[in-house]
Amino acid sequence: MKLIRGLPVLHDSRQGVVVTLGAFDGLHLGHQALIARARERARERNARSMMLTFEPMPREYLQPDSAPARLTNFRERWRLAAASGLDELCVLRFGARLRGLTGEAFAQRLAQAFGATVIVVGHDFRFGRDGTGTAEGLAACGQRLGFEVEVVAPVKGEGERVSSTAVRESLVAGDFSRAALLLGRRYTMRGRVTRGAQLGRTLGFPTANLRLKRRRAPLGGIFAVLVHGVASGAWPGVASLGTRPTVAGVEPWLETFLFDFAADLYGREIEVEFVAKIRDEARFDSLDAMVARMHEDVSEARRLLAG
Predict the structure, then answer these.
(1) ω before 56 within 30° of 0 (cis)?
(2) SS3 of 101, please?
(3) E-strand spans in the chain?
(4) How far apart are CA 70 and CA 230, in angstroms?
(5) Could you give the C-alpha distances from 302 to 141, 192, 228, 251, in angstroms and in order?
(6) What's the pTM value of the predicted model, to 2 decimals?
């Protein structure tokens, strides 16, 4: 899959692109339905399929203090998009210039810069200045500019509409089975292992540390996890996602202790799969009290993963 940052320069080989656009946070089953339909329409037309998305996500720019927690950072979204079979992923910077475009001006860019012949969107799609444009409005623009708009109906999982909001609610509640149903996969976080303060190593719990690279995480606490990317199969462990209040931490980290594992993982890209929540993050009165609870967390994680 080709990654494009910013508006592409249109040339003849780009004619006939089928575009699906939106925030695509989490790449849940609803998003996957949009991608599948875009790929299907592209095959019918012998065209290329493209996902067009934004960074930061629009609500992060418009409402920085109240934007929803991110299910996926950019790299995670890119990895998931690449696995979907799309030909291209285009990322536009969402800022004052893009925000200020009218619906008509935005539609013109879709036609002129991308050469879009079909645009696939969800039923609740909004675009243009202040989000006033609708799918119906985009279709009206398309009649003038030469592209077709197809609206994909909501996807339901066991009777409920699949949405990023529903996934977030599941993660906050520790209901990973429901989250997996909505996502079509287990919820994971991915990143490159970074060297931290190495406090865990001195306490007997060396951890693989990931920077979250998102403004807010959609969950927090202590979890039983499976780690991918360190061996041929998934490796069991226990993870802490939070700010480490006992040591006056501020920045949130995902710190994972892999059971019976000794190899150096610095610089390795890993993926942490959340299996079950053990407890919320807590502040302890001493490091000794924290270590005692960490031993309990390890025992509980082993029990949960063995079952």
Answers:
(1) yes
(2) coil
(3) 2-5, 17-21, 49-55, 88-93, 116-122, 126-127, 133-134, 148-152, 156-157, 160-161, 188-192, 208-211, 221-228, 235-242, 253-258, 269-279
(4) 25
(5) 57, 25, 17, 28
(6) 0.92
Alpha-carbon distance of 116 to 51, in angstroms, equals 11
CB-CB contact of 166 with 182 (8 Å): yes
- Condensed to tens digits (0 to 9), the pLDDT of residues 129-146 reads 777 778 899 999 999 999
In this predicted model, what pLDDT tens digit does every residue of 223-275 receive, in sequence order? Answer: 999 999 999 999 999 999 998 888 767 788 999 999 999 888 999 999 999 99
> How large is the average pLDDT for residues 180-184?
97
Gap between the Cα atoms of 201 and 133, Å rounded:
53
In the predicted structure, residue 51 carries a pLDDT above the cut 90:
yes
- Predicted confidence at residue 157, as pLDDT, reads 82
- For position 113, what pLDDT does the model report? 86
266 contacts: CB under 8 Å, gap ≥ 6:
193, 194, 195
Q: 219 vs 55, 176, 229, 282, CA distance in Å?
A: 21, 11, 22, 14
Residues whose CB falls within 8 Å of the CB of residue 156, separated by 6 or more in sequence, listed in order? 162
Q: In terms of Cα–Cα distance, which of 272, 210, 293, 282 is closest to 246?
A: 282
Residue 155 has, within 13 A of its CA and on its CB side, a CA count of: 23
Which amino acid is residue 200, in one-letter code? Answer: G
> CA-CA distance, 5 to 105, in Å (whole number)?
19
pLDDT-based confidence at 11, cuts 50/70/90? very low
